[in-house]
Amino acid sequence: MKKILKKIQSLIHSIFTVYAWCIPLLAIGTWLLPRTYFFVVVRSVSPQIALATLLVVVYFLFKNKTAAFLSSYGGLLVLLPLFLGPLLPDKISQENTSPANISFAQFNVLKFNISYDSTILKALQSNVDILSFQEVDKGWDNNLRKKLKEKYPYVISFPKESCCFGIALFSKLPLKNEHVEFLGGLPNIVADVNVKGRMIHVVSVHTNSPIFKQNFALRNQHLKELAQYLSVVKSPKIVLGDFNSVPWDVYLDQFKNDTKLADSRHSYVATYPSWLGRFGIPIDYIFHSDDITCTSFSQLESSTSDHHGVKGEFRFKANIAQNNKIHF
Q1: What is the reported pTM?
Q2: What structural domains and CATH numbers belong to the chain?
Q3: What local confidence, expressed as pLDDT, does residue 328 receive?
């Protein structure tokens, strides 16, 4: 038994040693080649890599192995700035107590999840004005329509049996000009909503997951086409959905820069995978234009989907609200 334990300890030490010497190169690569597929994937899970690196740092600190300690510690210092921004709470936004004009919730339901009632109950409990759903097939579409129709009578959906880009939007408020817009080869739902005499353009989105290089290219093309579509929309905008991209992804940064949209997050709110809880990554979003202010943003915990939902409350900025008033 002692021999087995000794072999295990030796194996762990060897793995940690290799890791300690490789992590600085990996971390530097994420900065030098941020648009390369491999390093985009690495950047996506950089918080989890940083946690593993911290474990290695502590290990070599206690082992008094100076070179390996410094190497792994250096790699950790290079990794941290990648994602620290979204980790730090935005106190100014959190202190915003002004009443909201409209609220949204976003759910990726997981197509193969047939525990419909759990997610639908969470959606109803959110009590928001507009609900966005992804991975909607006919089963989900039927159940959502049946159980949400009393509170959310205004609906547009595009269910798909093939995995996994069915999409739906449910609203308490009347939808105008609602239709399915194909961007990046995938369905997106767009609609206008009149909020107390003011118009908001709403877009619900689900991009490809970049788990393969081809999907990575498709996701980036989707973001590009979505930005082009939004560039001609002059009214205030809310864009929400599963973007399959973390806040520190350079392609998502480019999308935000091109569209002038802001992320509603005021702190690190992980949504995927749900079983990792707060140690997951944030890939579900509610973006808003600069004529709208986010007054609150929170996670809606899921026990059946692989995504947590998110909820956001918003209000018009005072000067925009007056200018955007609809006159009849």
Answers
A1: 0.91
A2: 2-87 (no CATH), 91-323 (3.60.10.10)
A3: 29
